[in-house]
Structures are given as structure tokens and as C-alpha cells.
Model the fold of this input.
Amino acid sequence: MENKYIRPRVKPIYPVYKLNELLFRIGAQLGITTEFEDPEGKLYKLVSILDGRELSDILKYMKSEFPDLTEEDVIDGLDILSNEDLIEESEDFSKYGIDERYIPNINYFSRFMKYGMSAYEIQKKINDSTILLLGLGGGGSNILTLLSGLGPRKIIIVDYDKVEKSNLGRQLLYKESDLGQLKVDVAVRTLKEMNSTIDVEGHNKKIERYEDVLEYTKGVDLVICVIDEPPFIAQKTVNKAVVEAKIPCVFGASQVSRGRVFSVIPNMTGCFDCLNIHYTLHDDKFVEQFVGFRDIDFNPPTVAYAPAMYQLTAAIVDEAVRILTGYAEPRSLSTQYEINYEDGSSFTHPSWTRYEEDCPTCGNGKSDKWEIFRYYDRK
Ligand SMILES: [Zn+2]
Done:
């Protein structure tokens, strides 16, 4: 008999309990709970022995309890549970010698696993990855703390600023004793203290040309770009580099009470310049807004509130993990994922496509065909 089950178990993250003689539930919280009607108690009996024992033992036990059951009936029962993603193949994590700090991550990923997928493999993909983090301000400093708990193999960080007192309200990687020091130096030192298994490399450098980014992309699996100065131009510069290096990049930026995340996967999704083309084609005030905004040289006070920044940076890092591992669908491919800190809501913008014919950066287009690109160049 062909089937996928070897040593199935109920995912340990879920409780199993009876409501009454007819009903039982797996899971306890709204949205992650499945209720089963089971008047004969057969499915509940099956569930109650899914503790990682072998399928042959499960079949033997079920037939002894319910002599009229066939093997197919028991497999059908497992299929019902598997279709709801409630069971998994048993795995003994201790055999991998995995760092204990990652076990809760693995348990979280297990929620998303189809039968036969391993949540451990998701964590391992993170542990095997190299991430280039551009910027150590309100975004990057908190992103680094989140990455320390995820444990990529290597993190390369690039920034040119020093720690200032005005940073301490939201850039919680830094301490008062770090004031006046280069952020990269503090970040490298602190990250080593937080997670000594990560190989960390810091570069004191201001990203001004796309070649500046390309200096650091060797061996990198994913880039996180949280430099937003000068506005739009920074993203355009990094975009050109990641398209050329063919490395996925998650971009994030915050404005007043909204945060936005979008990602570029070269040769698959539209790039940042495709987004400029998209807006040119779909928003008749886009170029005017861009030029009007640029011409006032708006220099706002820093607007940043730590709880809001954590919402954004958490979304950025989760998006990076989704793209790296595929544990769940990314939310910011060909769209911008926006978080409204005011009410905790999020939504995605209308999607934009890759303009292979027209994009000067990821396609075969010419920059001078599009008015918008002239305004980026002239500064
Ligand atoms: Zn493009």
C-alpha cells in the first residue's frame, strides 16, 4: 500500500480535546482551530495515538479497537487530518544538534508546513543564508536584533553614521555608552554578543552609487535595504545593484504613521524602476507629485516611534524569511505591502508588473524614454 505516512503525529503546537461525545477540536484559538464531528469516536481515537509511532502500529491498534475498519479507512482518516495541515511526519530535532534558540522558530514554522515538509529545513535555510543589510538607522538597527534571533550564517552590514542621542528612543540596538561611535562598529560588537554563531562583517560606507552596493553582494542570498536618504534615489541605486547582481531585495521605509515594504526578485518581479514606469502609466499626477516634492527639498524632523518602527521592521524581516525559505507566501512581491500604525491594519497596493520591454534597469528599455528618470538624474 502506497502512502506518505511513516510516523505521523499531531503537530505538537496543537492541543486535542473533546467538547462532548460528538465533537472534538484540534487547536484552541480562533482561526487556527479545526472542529470534527465524530459520533463513533473513531477519528478521535486515531488522533489520540498520533504520537509519532509507526504507521503499522497505528493500523494494528485501530483495527483492534474497531474491527470493521480497513487500512484504507485509517489512511482516509490521516488524509483528513493532513488536508487540514494538522499532522506532520515525526522528527527528532536533537539529531541535528540544532541550537536551542531556534526551536521556537521551528515550532512557529510547523504551523505552515504541509505533510512531508520539514519546519527544521526552513530554519536550516535561514541558518545557511547570507544577508546584506544596508542601513543601521531606525529600520536597520532593529532589523539586526530580529536577525540575531533567526541566525543567518552571515550578515554583512553597511552604514556610515555615528550613534547619536536622538537615536536612542527607537534604535534599541544602541546604548548610551555607544554614543559617538560608528554604528557599524557597535552593531558588529553587539551582534556578536547576541548571537556568536553569526559571522558578521561591518563596513563604514555611504552608499552613493550602485557600484558601492556591488562591492558587498558576493555570496549574498538576500539584501535588505532600509536606507531611504536621499528619498527614492537611494532605492533606485540599490535596485540597480540588486538587479545586476540578481539577488532578491526587500525594501522598507516609514513615513509619519505608515510603513511600506516591497520586494524585488530580479528577472521575476517588476523592479523599482518598473514601479516608476507603472506609476507614470497609471497615475497622471505621479510625475508632478515627484517633481513638486523634490523641488521643495523637504527636510522633515525625524518622525519615528519605536512601537511603529517595530511593526515595520518585523514585517520586513518576516518578508525576508518568506522569500528565503518559502515557509509562507511573501506579501510584497509585485505589490507594496503597507502598514498603517494608526489602527494596526495592513493592505497591499495594486500590483505592478515587470516592464521587460520598457524598463531601463531590468529590461531592454531606454531611460530617456521616460520623463520620470530625468528627475532622478538631475539633482
Ligand atoms: Zn524593471
